[in-house]
Amino acid sequence: QVQLVESGGGLVQAGGSLRLSCAASGRTFSSYSMGWFRQAPGKEREFVAAMSWGVGTTYYTDSVKGRFTISRDNAKNTGYLQMNSLKPEDTAVYYCAATKKSFSPSYSSRTFYDYWGQGTQVTVSS
């Protein structure tokens, strides 16, 4: 069992950067695939990025490619989402997620993940 806690959200001006952290406890995070999702007001929760545990391959939704980077530090049991060149449309609550399932093409689906953090607010002003 894994517990996830996000941190690092806040208010930033357009063009700025933030790094979100996802601290895991309970089990070794290195054996879990991880994902990041976000939910803006009035919108569905959407996939942002994912990383497999097997080979460390990364995946991103088109709107964040080239701006966001997903990574992890296994020694610290922590995952990260580095967000650069932030835009107002990036404003949302960001959630970290994890699963011990074998990585599959379902990585962008919310139902693929078994563990979720509480979310951290990211607000980008124009």
Proportion of residues in β-strands: over 45%
Biggest β-sheet strands, sense, barrel: 7 strands, mixed
Q: Which regions have little confidence, pLDDT < 50, spanning 5+ residues?
A: none
Mean pLDDT comes to 93
How much helical structure, as a percent, in the residues?
Answer: under 10%
Principal-axes geometry comes out as globular
Secondary-structure element order, as H and E? EEEEEEEEEEE
Instruction: Tell me the total number of β-strands.
Output: 11
Protein structure class: mainly beta
Q: What's the tally of helices?
A: 0
Radius of gyration: 13 Å
Query: What oligomerization state is this entry in?
Result: single chain
Written account of the structure:
There is one protein chain. The protein has strands at residues 3-7, 10-13, 18-25, 33-39, 46-51, 58-60, 68-73, 78-83, 92-99, 115-116, 120-125. The N and C termini lie far apart (40 Å). By secondary structure, it is mainly β. β5 and β6 (58-60) form a beta hairpin.
